[in-house]
Input
Amino acid sequence: MSNGLNSGIATALAGIALAAGQVEAKTVAWYHLDEVEPGTRLTQDVTVLNAVDSSKLPGTVWSVSGSTLGTSQDFMPIGTNDVADSVRVLDPAADVVADNPRSLFLVHADNSDGTKACRRGGCVQIASDSSLSLTNLTVEFFVKPVYQSATPGGGWQLCAKQSYASDKFTYSICLRADGRPYVNIYNSNLSTSSKVDPKTGSSKFVGNRSFLDGRWHHLAFTAATAVTEAEGGATTTNVTLKLYADGNLESTVELDYALEYTDNAPLYLGASQMGYYASGGFLDEVRISDEALEPWQFLRYLDTVSTHFHADFEKNLDVVTPTLPTLASAMTGTAGKKNKNEGENPTFSTEELPGIRIVDGLGNTLRQTNACSLRFVGSTVTYPHDPDLEMPEMTVEFFMKYQAASNYAGLLRFNQANDRWSATPIWTIIFSNDGSELRVVIYTTTKENQWRNFGSSFLDGKWHHVAMTIQQGATSLTVRLYDNYKQVGEDWTIDGRLDYSS
Output
């Protein structure tokens, strides 16, 4: 995504993934905020459905009445079709894709441009039950602020779970006046913890980056609770809280007290009954899960990464000159013959497969079935050089299963020209003859053929997903390598840019 929404998530997810629903869905509530036609201003008590169980946890629009100026209905939420680059959203943990045609615009000001602060407008109120009183949870959503209060300490209350008092919240996720996200955790018993502000009764932690850039952002708050029983039956509670912005960990806090709930206390989206300071913007896809999720499990929008080349080895299979279709061009590949022995050409297998259905890391199905793979026994498959692949930054990925090699074996190589043997390689991914390490070779504009061994082993007889990402900085490249979706070795920083000159 050009706006950076998925930049952190993409690093954690980079690559083609097997879609098997391998992680059980843990969603408790998921509010799409899609029920209202674009341009329609909501009135009080309009129901906003819950995608998980709307009969149990419905949300209704609620009018904030903290100001006596004017009519609060004038600033109720508005339905909008402003969504981030897509009309679909993925829950990768459950392998669920949902339509996402709309979002909700919320205003909390005396003027629609936020020029006069007040505590009125509207929000979504969920008269929730004990199903949302979670000790382990993830609260996540997409947000695009339009304006923020200039009042120091003022901000926009995005999602808040009310505690026992009308002005106290188990958690409250907000944006500060400078656009940085923060979370308040409330504790009623101030004497039990040294990690609570005695004036407010809360613990606050703040993110590093501002969301005031006119773009959509993903925000997530997680809580993981551990209770340890000591000798004599006494227990110790530790809660680890994390705040993520666009999939990147922004802040971590350890608390020595449990999250406090009152059953059936409301959950608020976009504000609370307290209103808050002058603020406003778009809110979308609010999901609550019953455990502290990892970034790869967070919601994300689809269709945000362009596939430039995809060889699936599935169609027009011919042992000598296979045609290997791509998604973005009509390039075809042919079996190379470095050796004269016809038996060393690639062969096709319908039994050796990494999975039966292939999706990409953003949830887009590339193949409903995966019927064939390619076995290399000494020769190669080549494609003509295409300028469409001369990208300054990219992700290159594939599945492979190691058997044996007589020498360092090239897995993928992109050349400056069409001569596959003598042309200078832009980048190469190879593994050693004992399968014990991956090596990347990079050709840049400042130095020739720099290389690094990244390690990892392929001697287990299993399929591995391998991915290389290249990110372009102002004066250098950052190369990362992944084995089965986990980074191998450290980041590799190289001066210069990829050299596509021939």
Q: What stands out?
A: The chain has one helix and 34 strands.
